[in-house]
Structure prediction request, 915 residues.
Amino acid sequence: MRDLSQRSVPRRAVSRRSLIKMFIAAGSGVSAAQLLAACSSVPAAPMQAPAVTTGPTKAPAPTSAVAPFQLAAPGVVVPPITMPAPSGAASDQTLSYAHQSKLLYLDPAQESGYGRFIISLVWLPPFLLDDKMNLTPGTCNAYEVSSDGLIYTLHVDPNAKWSDGSKFTARDIKSWIEYCSSPTNPSVYRTDARYVAGHGPVNKGDTRDMTGLVASDDLTLKITLTQKDPLFHYSVLANYRFGGPKADVAYADPNTWWSTNPVATGPFKIEKFDPDSLTYSFVPNPGYWRTPKPTLQRINLLTVTDPQTIVVMWQNNQIDAMFVSGSDAIDVEQKWPDSIIPMPNYGGNFFWSFNFTKEPTNDPLVRKALKHAVDVNTIAQTQYFGMRKPAKGPISPYAPGSRYDTLDQQNEFFKYDPDLAKQELSQSSYKSADNLPTLAITPNAPSGDKVRATEMVVEMWRKNLGITNIEGRPMATDYGAPIEYVKTINFLRISLGGLPDAATLVYSMAHSAGAIAAQFAGGYKNPAVDAAIEKAMGLNRSDPDYLKSAYQAEDLYLADYMYVPLYVDRYSYYAKPWVKNFKANWNNLMYTLDQTYLAAH
Amino acid sequence: MLKYILLRLLAMIPLLFVVLFIVFSLGHLAPGDPVEMMYVNVVLEQSTVTEEQKQEVRHRYGLDQPFFVQFGTYVQRLAQGDFGNSITQSRPVLPMILKVFPISAQLGLAALIMLVIAGIPLGILAALHQNRAGDYAIVGGSLFLRTVPVYVLAPLLLILLVLQFHIMDVPNGWHGLFTPNVVLPVFLLMLFPLAVVIRQMRASVLEVLSTDYVRTARAKGLRERQVVIGHIMRNALTPVVTEFGLIVTGLITGSVFLETIFGIPGYGQLYVNALRQRDYPLILGCTVLAAMLVMLSNLVVDVIYPMLDPRVKL
Prediction:
């Protein structure tokens, strides 16, 4: 964690220059653009290509110092992190935390992002992750794995109890996993526990009893898998989705149970959750059964969707901590680098995917030419000022075993070579740019950085290959209804995050059953890639063949030229210097919030 | 009068039906699909959703039915007071709207009162000082404020008032009408229609000023204040009141930008989020409400006419 200094932060006066800058930013209609994009009624219009900036941009060094780590081996649980005891604490321990999205749910079964900051500290999952991906005690304090990797035995902490004082038992874990898999639950994430025996019938709604989950007594849960899953401890045991309320509460009211102050197991409980009035607050759970007890007396969640407003509130010290992302985060990190609280190991890969099935990107030589004509490093540098790494392969630089620093030296895929690109285009079935059918492309986001990056690609294609027949639309959905639009687009910007595990990342991007290949790349399938990924996925992460197979899959995928990389995002929280003991883990959880306090300021 | 009001209320039903049909059709013709919107999040989570799961969601909300069946079902339920369930939030639409509408209504009505208090006197003043400095200042100033979009003006004011002069904190959220948080949003909300009211009032007063009865009033030796309030203002108000019919609807339903900037959980934010997520039942619910508001406010204006001008008969 960064050492946040004790100095008080005076209110910043606004210089005339910054006033003008804000005016220009406001004039550019960021809010308006967001709203217009939200309405998605923006007419299709060809993108105008701007001049490309080729010179280097001076900027702060990337803040990407991430502690080295390895994924925990199955069965290993480490003690929870202990932070320094509060010293010089402020009398008012109310944390004002702001983010930009309206939080609709606080249901672990449905949660997909913004609620994760606290959700696991309201309902503890069996294990919590720390910032180095270690499993630490949640409602359970230990587990064992059988030698064949098919049986997991969880040991519930004997002190664990609900906030109403009732005892927390192994049956509570079992029934919540069953609820998460059941169709009663309106979530679209009902397959996370798919390898647990008996998941299928529960998932179909035929029964509520998952046969692979057996609570032999109050403190022991035996989980039987149908097939070995070397990452089961991440996908289920330390997954925030599998810490929830008493399942009966959720079965009774699956759509709003969290807004009725249900009992909790973690250090905090919900005081108010009302998305209609945007009022959210959390207070300590008086019945919390583990030490230390929270020092914070209240956490108020503020919803500030407008990026300019949140920055003014931040400057005015109305916010103690916040989450912003994308180009807004770049701005904040440039101005207040000391406020960054990184979510370590998370590296969302942003890239443009080629459509494998549509002309002209069905021709591998066209894809090669289009890739080699784009200077990705310049785009990343120009748009992200050195604050974000240019993307490379599917394996994130924040994943153990990443070849990020050497991959581009080994592989022709990463070359920026306009001459080679011209040669490839001339060798393609189209021979020259004049014969290419119109390329349909989209930045697929209303945010300025993504749009500008896409415009730079267009200009590089024009300058290096002479391609001018390009049609660009702001959002993928502007091309047509449902998922059908994917068939129309040649070049679609998308993003992908995930567990920092090499094989999992390659799977998601390149495996024919993965979301990207199956949906956005037009049904990409390379049996050799699939086979290498499947082999890697089934191996223990300590197996010497594991990384070899993951690399093989990545190399084979790169050779198919299915994408153009953009940048690797790194999400962070931002906190004022008086917010102490504040850390975040990979899953966006402020996992030391039970020890966080506000120093006097 | 009562018969007129009842007839107008009855006439709203077919009009509402037409509005519903158009919005329902546009919603279905527009690109995007709520189920796919859910799916986008899943992709980011590296999970996959089967086509069966998507079909199940579509079936749950009747999205797999033919267009006319969906529309018929919706109208049938609406007639029974059932606005349906939000697709993205899986809860009834009507309570959601009823929760946020009073917030926007309070904001809009507060802005309307400020508009009346500021706009009508300024319009009269401008007319009484026609082609003089006061007239230019009032008309020019209000036009300038109208030309600057609220999403430019609001951040500028925030920077000046909050960061530069430290007069206030950034207002965020809704804490009731009678709180300091409301002052800035209401002021900004009022600014856009202010120029319309001022110019309309000015033009109307100028017209009345040249009438015989004003000349007579002055000839009788009435004081200027009595002439302005008793003879000019009342007669000049009729065309301005017509404008208020539309303005009030805009004030209540058109505060989208301000609600976004100040984090006010109002009707505008609800509507925009519904559009963003292709939440058809919520979009339709919001549209029904907006359409009813337009029709009702125009009815109210029509009913007020005879009070201002006895020559008008309903």
